[in-house]
Specification:
It is built from six helices and no strands. By secondary structure, the chain is an all-alpha fold. It has two domains: 61 residues; 34 residues, no CATH class.
Length: 124
C-alpha cells in the first residue's frame, strides 16, 4: 500500500525550522547557544537549515525548548482539525506579556487584513 503523504508522514520540517528560527531570533540567541541548551548538535541544526528533518529525539528536545507542538506542523488527511488559525493567533497575541490589549488588537488587525487579502478561496 502506497502512502498518499510520503515518508515524512506530513511533517512540514521547513515550517518547523522557520518557526524555530523566529524564536531563536526573538530570544537574541545564536544557534550555538541553542545547541548548548538543548543538546542538539550544531550539525543537526545546520542540516535543518538546509531542509533536512531532525531525528525524533532532536525534534522532541527542540520542541520542548521552544514550546512548540510538533503536531502543529503536520499536514495530513488523518490529522484532526484544530481551532481556526486566526483564533489561535488571536489567543497567542492576547496572552503575550509583551503586548497590552491595545497593541494585541492592533497586531491582530494587521494579521487579519493580510490573511483576508492573501488566503486562498475555497472551492465548492
Amino acid at each position: 500500500m502506497t502512502s498518499i503523504i510520503g515518508n515524512d508522514k506530513g511533517f512540514d520540517g521547513d515550517a518547523f525550522y522557520r518557526t524555530l528560527e523566529s524564536i531563536v531570533r526573538s530570544r537574541s540567541m545564536t544557534w550555538k547557544e541553542v545547541s548548548a541548551e538543548t543538546g542538539v548538535s550544531a550539525s543537526t541544526l545546520t542540516r535543518m537549515a538546509q531542509g533536512r528533518k531532525p531525528d525524533a529525539a532532536s525534534l522532541a528536545a527542540l520542541s520542548a525548548w521552544a514550546g512548540l507542538n510538533p503536531s502543529d506542523f503536520v499536514r495530513a488527511p488523518y490529522k484532526k482539525p484544530g481551532a481556526e488559525p486566526l483564533a489561535q493567533i488571536s489567543t497567542l497575541l492576547r496572552t503575550d506579556p509583551n503586548l497590552d490589549t491595545e497593541a494585541a488588537e492592533a497586531v491582530e488587525a494587521i494579521v487579519r487584513a493580510a490573511y483576508d487579502r492573501l488566503k486562498k478561496e475555497r472551492r465548492p
